[in-house]
Specification:
8 helices
C-alpha cells in the first residue's frame, strides 16, 4: 500500500529573510534527515518525524511572537494568504484529531485481544476479538485513504496560491506554507503506516480459523493431533508478543502526535490573535 502514496518533495524557498531563517533551517534539517532514512515506513522513523515536526513548530511559534511578524501579518489580515493559513491550520487540526481517534481505537482493539489471549483456554472471546479487529482494520484502511486524499487536495491548494509582492510578507507566508506542507506529508506517512500496520493480521486470521474448528476449545481431548495443538500454542504465543509490541508502538506514536496537536492549537491561536489586533 505504501507504494501507492508518493509523498510530495518539498522545495525550500530560494529567497530568505532574517525573521524566517530559523524556521528554514529546521525545515532543511528535517528534510535532510528524511532523505537519508529508508523508504520503508517504520514506527521509529515516524516518531522521529513527529519529534522534528514538534521542534519545527517551536520555531514557528518564535516567528509568530516577533513584533515585526505580528505587525506584518496584522497589516495584511484581509489578504487571501491569511485565510489560507487559517484554513490550513483547521484542516491539520481536523486530520490530527481523526488520526488520534484512529490510534485510540487501535489501542482499544489490541487491549481487547491481549485480554482474550490471557484468558485463552475455553474462551471464544479470542475469535470475537480477532473478528472485530479484522473488521475494524478494513474500515480504517478505507478511512485512511480518504484522509490521505484530503491531505493531497489541501496540499495542492496551498502550492497553487500566488504570493503578494511585499518581500517580507512573501518570506513569512512561504515558510509557513512549507511548514504546513511538511506537516501534511508527515501525516500522510503516519496514515499509510497505520493502515498497513492494522491490515497485517494473517497470523490472527490463522488462529481464528483453527479455533473455529474447535482445536483450542478441545485441547483436553485425546483425539486432537499433538502437532496441531503445538501450532496453535505457538501462534497464540506469537500473537501475545505481537500485541504487546503493537501497543508500545501505538503509545509512542500517540504521544508524539499529541505533542504536535498541542503545537497546532498554539499556532492557530497565535494566528487568530494576530489578525484580531
Amino acid at each position: 500500500m505504501a507504494a501507492k502514496y508518493q509523498l510530495r518533495s518539498i522545495s525550500l524557498p530560494t529567497r530568505s529573510h532574517p525573521t524566517t531563517a530559523r524556521v528554514e533551517e529546521e525545515l532543511s534539517r528535517l528534510q535532510s534527515w528524511e532523505s537519508t532514512t529508508s523508504s520503508a515506513l517504520t514506527s521509529d522513523s515516524i516518531c522521529r518525524s513527529l519529534c522534528g515536526l514538534e521542534e519545527l513548530y517551536d520555531c514557528v511559534d518564535d516567528l509568530l511572537q516577533m513584533a515585526s511578524t505580528q505587525q506584518l501579518l496584522s497589516q495584511h489580515q484581509q489578504e487571501k494568504c491569511m485565510d489560507e493559513l487559517l484554513d490550513g491550520s483547521v484542516k491539520l487540526l481536523d486530520i490530527c484529531g481523526i488520526t488520534r481517534d484512529f490510534m485510540l481505537q487501535v489501542k482499544e482493539h489490541v487491549f481487547s485481544l491481549q485480554s482474550a489471549l490471557r484468558r485463552r483456554k475455553g474462551d471464544s472471546s479470542i475469535e470475537t476479538s480477532i473478528a472485530n479487529y479484522t473488521s475494524f482494520s478494513k474500515k480504517m484502511k478505507k478511512d485512511a485513504k480518504k484522509l490521505i486524499s484530503q491531505l493531497k487536495q489541501a496540499d495542492n491548494m496551498i502550492a497553487s496560491q500566488p504570493l503578494e509582492q511585499d518581500q517580507h510578507l512573501v518570506a513569512v507566508i512561504r515558510v509557513l506554507r512549507q511548514v504546513c506542507a511538511k506537516n501534511m506529508s508527515i501525516f500522510q506517512s503516519l496514515l499509510v503506516f497505520l493502515a498497513v500496520s492494522v491490515s497485517k493480521s494473517n497470523k490472527w486470521s490463522l488462529v481464528s480459523k483453527l479455533m473455529h474448528k474447535g482445536v483450542v476449545a478441545c485441547e483436553s481431548q485425546a483425539d486432537i493431533n499433538g502437532h496441531e495443538l503445538d501450532g496453535v500454542d505457538s501462534a497464540l504465543s506469537s500473537l501475545c508478543k505481537s500485541a504487546e509490541v503493537e501497543k508500545i508502538r501505538i503509545a509512542s506514536l500517540e504521544s508524539g502526535l499529541e505533542r504536535v496537536f498541542r503545537r497546532l492549537i498554539k499556532t492557530r491561536a497565535s494566528l487568530l490573535n494576530i489578525i484580531s489586533q
